[in-house]
Amino acid sequence: MREVAVVGIGQTRVYEHWDKSLRELAGEAALEAKAEAQVANIESIYVGNMMSGVANQQGQLGAMVADWIGERFTDSVKIESACSSGSAAFRMAYLAVASGQSDIALAVGVEKMTDSPSSEITGALATAADADWEVDHGLSFVALNALIMKRYMHEYGWQGIDFAEFAINAHANAVHNPFARFQKAISEEQFIKSTMICDPINLMDASPIGDGAAAAILVPVEMLAPNLPRIVVAGSSAATDTISVHDRKQPLWLSAAEKSSKSAYAQAGIGTEDIDVFEYHDAFTIMAALSLEANGFAQPGKGPTLAKEGAIRVDGKIPVATRGGLKARGHPVGATGMYQLVEVVQQLRGQAIGTQVPHPEFGMAQNIGGSGSNIVTHILKREN
Amino acid sequence: MREVAVVGIGQTRVYEHWDKSLRELAGEAALEAKAEAQVANIESIYVGNMMSGVANQQGQLGAMVADWIGERFTDSVKIESACSSGSAAFRMAYLAVASGQSDIALAVGVEKMTDSPSSEITGALATAADADWEVDHGLSFVALNALIMKRYMHEYGWQGIDFAEFAINAHANAVHNPFARFQKAISEEQFIKSTMICDPINLMDASPIGDGAAAAILVPVEMLAPNLPRIVVAGSSAATDTISVHDRKQPLWLSAAEKSSKSAYAQAGIGTEDIDVFEYHDAFTIMAALSLEANGFAQPGKGPTLAKEGAIRVDGKIPVATRGGLKARGHPVGATGMYQLVEVVQQLRGQAIGTQVPHPEFGMAQNIGGSGSNIVTHILKREN
After folding, report:
1. What is the Cα–Cα distance from B105 to B97, expressed in whole angstroms?
2. Would an 8 Å CB–CB cutoff place A354 in contact with chain B?
3. What is the pLDDT of residues B145-170, one digit of tens each?
4. Catalytic: A171?
5. Cβ contact, residue pair B127, A58, below 8 Å
């Protein structure tokens, strides 16, 4: 398969965009990516989206996006894998170019959540859990994560406050990101005093929903002009697990994350220690901890230790959520994976103003669907 | 890219399967295909589905299917492009194998529609239309097709009765298909007397919804045992159009069908006249007529003429809906494209008992999403 480069990126701010429709959001990000890439005809389009059928009464976003951005008649479909839909779409675009099927592919993640009734959105989010075996018993998606967090605290002896640094770091970084939903820092005191949502998850443990879109253009590496930053897809891998958490042998271990990152590391020919920046899926602080562990950055149960030591800060050993993460940049579910990838590209280009990691070579983005049931990992590499 | 063969197929009957869940339906078809293919580990799974989020409160069918059929940790996503989701999933599986990404890929289309409230299903079907510009004005999906049919009748001088043969042929063929929802013939008199749903579309112009799943296993051609029927993907192409019908220059011409079939013909190195069997997308009789025209089998406005001449029957020039089509086999929307492909494989293998076309070499399946906004065309070829 051919080597693939990311040549253009675009994003809207994650926000309550009540004045912009689904197609306008997707179009804004996609056209920005296309303009930056300076490409003519897009040959394949993959749209990552989780809940447009429920939240926006709109299906076939493939056709919707293709038409809106002036690419009518292009091959275009929607890819859905709950909250990992965005990076699943990127993976399809990568495969389309790597295989030789297309020379220019667009991946765009889009979600519009804030002008639907919140009960509808809670229901739509619950489609990421198992309808027959979890939701049917009354579990919402946050409740599922609360159960995991409670078990984790019991098993490893942590308290709620031990997760504060994940949120504080994310918010500190988002201050510098004009596309973040919450561009403000939070203190430990604010974390402690924040409202309990679903014990032990408080408001500061949880990422906010939002409206937004992010996009990237992928081309074969030989199409890149020599003066451009050469940012290639060094590893791409996806793995599934049971949707129901109770079906897993180890409910505190993200097996699909481990499987997909190991495969991505192998493709890139590197190890955990070579990753310079990691955009992880901190939908809840417990997911931040579990991600650090499953991908080899911390021992089981030691995710919070890494955070407390400052290792996850921009100047730490493994900078995470460098543009705010899901916690502060925001989590427009089906778009999130594309935001992560766009942010890794910004880091590798040296465009992460205010939170730039010094001269990163490898950046990893990992996007989690469900409570760990569909996980997509990408490693991008700057080659010049 | 590598040449790809279809090595195993499976399907459930299209029916009101109130005793089977979404995963059971998908699993039944997928495991049958896998058993027939006699393959070990599936490397990629693509699930075509339109409305599980709305109708079944279940997202990420990729993970759901992978786990249920014993392929936990496999790379698996859901593909959605409204009613063409099934063949869009097949196209992804084809690309995965053709590119060298996977040696064994599974495509499965599944939909479960009959134990949801019918108002919910009508709403879910309307997500195939444009939420902002069509549905917002009160149009349901059948109403949209009724407008197209009315215009077609006005433009070319046809009456409602002139569409009868499309339905009569489909039902006549379904008598021989144990997987069809309606395994009974209808007469012209029954067509004339059938209930008007949305003028000029009567009950016999419209395909029934249903629950069902169909699946196929794809492998590189060199993996095929020499004694097996060598059925290869000779052409695969998808094209989009505007979702809103009023945005098209020619509302009576399926431009995306023309574009995708022309590309598929070119890939296969053949012309319209070489197609021996055509599984078309007769969601409504008007779509049957428009499909025959856009793909070169009839002149504009002459689709009904072809039907009246008997050319669409099993012994005619261009046999269509040979296992009942959407009209009588049934239309479990996101699964339909996979049923079409499974039926083409049956024809090429000589397994279409009761409606076998004599020694077909090329079979075409065309799946339409929306009112022509996302169209996927495949040409399969029997090579031995």
Report:
1. 7
2. no
3. 999 999 999 999 999 999 999 999 99
4. no
5. yes
